[in-house]
Design goal:
Elements (H helix, E strand, L loop, with lengths): L3 H36 L24 E2 L40 E2 L4 E5 L2 E5 L4 E6 L3 E8 L5 E7 L5 E7 L4 E6 L5 E6 L5 E7 L4 E7 L7 E5 L6 E4 L5 E5 L2 E6 L4 E7 L3 E6 L5 E8 L2 E8 L7 E2 L4 E3 L14 E7 L5 E9 L2 E8 L4 E7 L7 E4 L2 E10 L2 E10 L7 E6 L2 E6 L4
Parallel strand pairs: 22-26
Antiparallel strand pairs: 1-2, 3-4, 3-31, 4-5, 6-7, 7-8, 8-9, 10-11, 11-12, 12-13, 14-15, 15-16, 16-17, 18-19, 19-20, 20-21, 23-24, 24-25, 25-26, 27-28, 28-29, 29-30
Length: 427
Amino acid sequence: MLTKKKIVILSVALFALAVSLVGLFLTSSKTSEITSSETGPSATSIYRTNENRNITSTPIFPTISLVGATFIPTVTPIVQIPTASPSVFISTTLTPTSTLTPTPGEITLGRLSYIQDKDIYNTDLKSTNLLVANETTPSGSLKWSPKGSYLSWISERQASTSSVVVYHVEQRRKKTVEIGVQNFTDYAWSPDEKKVSILYGDTVGSFSKVFFTDEPTIFMELTIPIYPISGFKWLKNGQYLIWGSKGIYVFNIETEQLDMLVSQDGITFISISPDETKLLYSVSENENNEWYIKDLTGNTSASLIKPQSFDFTSVNLPASYAEKGFDSKAVWFPSSDKIFLTIKYLREFPIVGMYDISSNSYSVISFFNIKNSDFMSDPYTLIGERAASKNGSMESQIHLFTIEGQANLGLIKVIPHASSPAFYFGN
């Protein structure tokens, strides 16, 4: 027979057993949740990729040791500069979930360099490293030499004088050359990267001072009988391509002969295709702007860009918006067969689309304010400098946008308080 004492003891035992069972159930659920989290999608799997495709990164430069290099943990990289097919989708809204923890030692240099806090940095979008801590203020014009052996930039020591700084990447040494002129226009590398040419001008004419990168600074001065000059490029054939408001010229460095390539008033912008076979230039009159393409491999005249078809589907607008005409902004694709061109819409909010040279067609991508200084690092990534408001003031930033996976130039990375992006396009 159960006594009162036995009933109490039994009740306590049953209660303890029930508590144990509840605790075991909760522990099992938590363990299952943790296991599911650990075996679920990783931080990088938020980007949908084709399972049959491997995305790899091939170093552009040899691995070199930068002793004492300082690393700056800026924005966590969302994705490395894509080299893949359009089957990859890159999210433009997800926040990075991991933080870079670079360690000093062997560093593989990336293709992208920029100026930040008076210093020169380099990144492959996975890690960022300091290349040069400047004792002077870099004012911009950061450029890679044609073969990727050097970086160069303009450095301001005083308000009235500037210098060109040439930095040998592998040897980690720099050469500073005083320009000695106040009316500096631009500078350019020779195709063999043995020389640098500095362009400047006055009311008499324009001049080019050329110095050798690995020799004592002895200037070779050339006289160019036109003024003013807006810019120039040292072509692979060894000649200068020079442009101004009155036309475009070819200047022979050896003979100092100047030949007219395009005779045209009102030229507002020119751009040479990455393979240097085509010349793109805009002509503006009043508020009207027209684009022309000239083949640099022959003697054919320039052709007016007048697409046979327009596709405005992506922005839900009728094709009649093409009648507003092109704006004066353009960016080449690396393949040299396509160009980003803008159509007038709002002053700071134009329509940007892709013009296909072979099909003579124009397909709208998005509403986007492209800059003439922007560039395509690959078929899907646009890089450019932008001004942004931060803590009540404006700062310069470098933005990376993508058209991959129907992203329509969505923002994928920001490098804060950075300027003068320079990208190495060589092999």
